[in-house]
């Protein structure tokens, strides 16, 4: 998973070989990702 400007979120299911856009709930700049179980 990677995030960037304008709320863009992308994810890879192929070890980074290909990337797909994911639905984002925002349009603000994203700079951090936090995962929890």
UniProtKB/TrEMBL annotation:
<protein>
    <recommendedName>
        <fullName>Photosynthesis system II assembly factor Ycf48/Hcf136-like domain-containing protein</fullName>
    </recommendedName>
</protein>
<feature type="region of interest" description="Disordered">
    <location>
        <begin position="1"/>
        <end position="23"/>
    </location>
</feature>
